[in-house]
Structure formats: C-alpha cells, structure tokens
Fold:
Amino acid sequence: NPLTTVLGFLQLMKSGTFSPEKMNRFLEISMEEIRRTEQILSEYLSISKPAASLQQRLELISQMQAVVEVMTSYANMNNVALHVRCPQTPIFISGSTAELKQLLVNFIKNAIEASKDVTKGTVEISIREEPPHVVIQIEDNGIGMTEEQLNRLGSIYYSTKMNGTGLGLTFSYQAIRAMNGSVSVSSEPLSGTTFLIRLPIAEGVKG
Structure:
C-alpha cells in the first residue's frame, strides 16, 4: 500500500503542473510511506504468530486525517471521490500508531478499488462517538459482495480480488481485535459495502 501511494505521487509529480511547495509535500509524504514499508512487511510476515503490540494513547481524528491525505491521490487515480466527516473535538483511543494507520489504509484502499468501475464511484468515511466506543464507518457504492464472500472476509489468504492475497484484511481484523475492538460489514452485490469499526474510547483522557 505505501508503494502504491508513492507511485501515485510520482505520477502526479511527473506531470510538472504543481508548485515547488506542493512537489515538496508530495516528496515528504512519499519518503514517509517508504519508511513505513519495512515495518509493514514485518507485520505481514508475522500475521501467523502475532505478538503483543505496544499500546499507547492515540488521537484518532488526526490519524485519520493523515491517512486520508495519503489515500486521496490513490482515489483520484481511480476516479473515485473520497469524502470524510469527522468531529471537531479530539477522540482518544489506545493502540499502535502504525497498526491503526495500516488498517485504515487497508479498508479505504479496498473501498476505492471496489468503486473504481462504477459510475461516480464514491467512498464516504465518518467518525462518531457511541460511548464507550468510537465508530469508524467506511461506506462505498462499489461492486458489493455476496453473502458467501462476507462470511469469509478476514480469513487468512482469502480475497475478493483477482490478484489479492487476503493478508490486508486479515491483518486489519487482527489489529482491531488487539485493540479490543470489533468490525462488522454489510453488503449486497452491485449495492456497495459498509464497514463499521468499533474501538473503545481511552479512559482518563478528555478532548
């Protein structure tokens, strides 16, 4: 996923239509994504023997905004509109920064790819509080899934994509469980898909 992002920014930079300031920002994001590659590869390789992750207090809204900034170029490459609605006040959770960002990237990337071949492909992302949890909703108007596909989601090496490995969602489901969260999904063929990720709000921290 980071390499896909870097490729997208390189293609944008190749056009030569952006200001030096914008080009520098593209470079900064690309370098950050390349640095994440080694860590992500290690995480994927350890899926079959997950270890306890370092849990820390994270501010969810800023983490989501960082992911959306990265994924916007990928959405543009695939002619998909990416819309985000987040509360104005901070929301704190407990988890690993790297794992949180990667699972968000995985879900958003899948939603974009599911919507790229439909008319006016759209991915809607929203965050809302339902104490004691925060709910992240990722909804697309893409190709959707059958009941059989839904039942197998998150199984190791199962993917709905022709060349997919299934590791992305397997990792994401494991990371959510490690954060004491849960994930549910609703979908129908040709009617889009909605993922609901519920994570506990961190105690003792107020926005």
